[in-house]
Design goal:
mainly beta, SH3 type barrels, 1 helix, 49% strand, globular
Length: 73
């Protein structure tokens, strides 16, 4: 998991995560990961439009965001 997050940080890539929140509810977030500090991920959350800190152990899945361009552009 950390390797995927480090790659996204290095490539300045937006990613989607499935995150297990403090109340035990899974949420889907689109984030721009900024830094790993111990067992925490500092990121800008595009879903909430604010900086956030995520516990890496609570990140259940990671996938890159694919930007699709309209045909002909």
């Amino acid at each position: 998991m950390k390797k995927e997050l480090q790659r996204a940080i290095g490539q300045q890539q937006h990613i989607e995560i499935i995150y297990l929140g403090s109340e035990g509810k899974a949420t889907k977030r689109t984030i721009r990961p900024l830094q790993i500090a111990g067992d925490r991920l500092k990121a800008y959350c595009l879903t909430r439009r604010a900086p956030r800190v995520f516990a890496i152990g609570n990140i259940l899945a990671v996938q890159p965001v694919v930007i699709q361009h309209a045909a002909g552009y």
